[in-house]
Amino acid sequence: MKTNKRQDGFSLIELLIVVAIIGIIAAIAIPNLLASRRAANEGSAQSSLRTIHSSEATYQSTGGAGNFGTLTALKTANLVDGVLGAADTSTKSGYTFVVTPVDFVAGTSAASFGATANPTVTSGVSQTGTRKFGVTEDGVMHGQTDALGTAMTAAELSATNNVLGN
Asked: How many Cβ atoms from other residues are within 10 Å of residue 71's Cβ?
C-alpha cells in the first residue's frame, strides 16, 4: 500500500529570499524615516519659538508690566501650552527650550529676552535635530549647525549670518 503525503508550504530558500528582501527595504526606508523625524522636530522647534516670541510680546504688554517672562510665567498666564511651559527649561519634540528674560531698568536698558532651542540628542542614530535655533525680542529666527550641545549666545542671536528665512 502506497500513501502520498503532500507537504505544502514554503521551502527554506523561499523564506530566506523573503527575509532578505524585507531587510533591503528596511535598510532603504529607516534612514529616510529618521531624517523625516529630525525635520519634523526642527519644524516643531521653530514653531514653538515663534509661539514663545508672540507670547512674550503679549506678556510684556499685559501681565509683565513692561518685562518679559520665563516659560513658567508664560504658562501661568496661559500663553504657552503645558508641555512648553512645564519648567523654565522645558523639553518638547526632541528639543530643549530655555528663555532668558532681562528686566527693564529705568534710564539704563530696555527689557529683552532670548529664547533658544537645542536638540536633546546631538549625534548618532537617535539624533533629534541637526540645527539649534534662537529668537530674541526682535522676532528674527536664527539657526546654526555647529556646537549643538550648547545654547546660542547673545552674540549668535544678534548675528546676521545665521538668520533663517520665514
From this structure: 23
